[in-house]
User: Fold this.
Amino acid sequence: MKIDVVTLFPKMFESPFEESIIKRAIKNNIIDLKIHNLRDWAIDSYGSVDDKPFGGDVGMLIRADVVYNALKDIKKENSRVILMSPKGKKFDQKKAEELAKVDNLILIAGHYEGMDQRISDFMIDEELSIGDYVLTGGELPAMVVIDAVSRLVSGVLGKDDSNKTESWSEIEIDGQKIRAPEYPQYTRPQEFMGHKVPDVLLSGDTKKIKAWQLDQIKKELEKRKSE
Ligand code: SAH
Assistant:
């Protein structure tokens, strides 16, 4: 999968992907991550990419023409263009699964006061938010999307891990397909400061263990319903 990011702060993307799973995916050419500096498409030699909002609002907005020119160079036929925005649809595991099937993702990170509305109106496929709060820029949100999507791309996780059902992946409980948090897991020591690992997990009875895990998920869902 090819992932392009358009940002005013390319350096922010350096170290987060030089560790662990995503680093290996990039090294193995499963993920091809390219970070583009929006200033490469600046309108003048001073590197201008933004301007004051019409109507007297404070702050600076990224210009529509600058983003248009960047996309003209980066976008391909199979690209899915996503604008990171607190106004967007909430990013979740279902969306990550959908995006993991795309050949080329282009993520646009805003900064400052935001972006000219025309970017959202006619240059992109969708607007995604990582939650109902405002960050200083779309760089961290873009990294969240890159991480959550990349680990679902075939070959990025180890064989054992990729078959596993995890929090918010679709599971079947009592004939119903739902998305839910994962059941609790434990490792050694078997007892820690008086807290014991549930006996069933030490029983070796896989049927019983599975039933216990499902039961834990159901209990957690009930608990959340009453909160
Ligand atoms: N004035 C805007 C906020 C701009 S924040 C508003 O009130 O809606 C600057 C940039 O940070 C945005 O353009 C966006 O790219 C990014 N950003 C901030 N919070 C975000 C969030 N929760 N999800 C995704 N992107 C976000």
